[in-house]
Amino acid sequence: MPSLEAYVTCLAFEVGSGRIAGVANRHVHQQRSLPPLIAVVGPTAIGKTALGIHLARAFDGEILSADSRQFYRRMEIGTAKPTREEREQAPHHLIDVADPDETVGLAQFLRLARRTLQQITARGRLPLVVGGTGQYVRALLEGWQVPEVPPDPDLRARLEREAEGDPDAVWQRLVTLDPAVPDFIDPRNVRRVVRALEVSLKTGQPFSVLRRRTPPPYRILRIGLTMDREALYARADARVDAMIAAGLLDEVKDLLARGYGWELPALSGLGYAQFRPFFAGQASLTDVIERIKFDTHDFIRRQYTWFRLNDPAIRWCQADAPDLQPRATEAVRSHLGIPDTDLDSA
RNA sequence: GCCGAGAUAGCUCAGUUCGGUAGAGCAGUGGACUGAAAAUCCAUGUGUCCCGAGUUCAAUUCUCGGUCUCGGCA
What we know:
The protein is of the alpha/beta class. The protein contains 15 helices and eight strands.
């Protein structure tokens, strides 16, 4: 019953918000001086884009997309990128900032996002972080300090080859350099073992001590969108069918024709990678569609581990409630400290 | 109508060779995550083994009867 629980959380927040004024005045003043930031989070296909645009229009805001796949140009349909019409309704950032053969990782995202946030705020406009890439959103809102170690493809390839032969040796090597690593990395996850080793080798410092965070200088309101799981799956499935109808296959063909390969991170995303067996003659289009749907369900489940229904920092709202927009608008208004009358007259 | 094959987890099926109440893949569910993150990795399988009767200490497994499904022939 995640939906009901979430709904209750939502109500609890409205009721409880008055309490904040009573606590530690100095702290409140300090917080008040920080510029506001709104984040709209939640699983894929739940309606974050639409709500983001609605809020941006209502509050003179600009949208910062926290979506690891919408960075890439020529990938419109499969990434469910906001359409041209949608983007005309409010300024959008961090969409179409790279070609598919480039790799925009966490660190680049954070750099771009922090700068963009600053600029939006400097313009006197309200920044809205809208996105479903859990790691990126959390990193941005929690102020993760990512170790300054760019990926080294050669080193990674070498370590991966080594791990293929003797995974334990590679793991032991990492543990020697960083004894704390078993607390947060699974030895069987070669990808993460290799990265940790990469950082430790290049910096000479344990990976674990380089993972720091400094809270960003904003007063943040997190609005979470949720919905009954089954209904959400149905909605996501329908969106996949709509993507196919909109020409997803042609979009993939076009990317391949331009020489973009399956090994690229951009092509590893939902709605793209699943076409690989199809082009290898090993799967029908029907198989591909089903695969995309199942993988999307899996993704939704994993997104909830980044955005938890019991996270008190997130104000969860039912995405399919008829009063979602007024409710969200009210939440933002109260966060900004704007009296009702100001908005009504505007 | 006849002949054959089958009926086992939500789905597709394996299996019980020599009877001791069952297991894979997919689906579903939970989790990890600090420069690939829509990636990568981990954990999680009690279901009238179609129904009835018989044999037996014991049947999902053997026997008989029935029901249904799918082929083939009429």
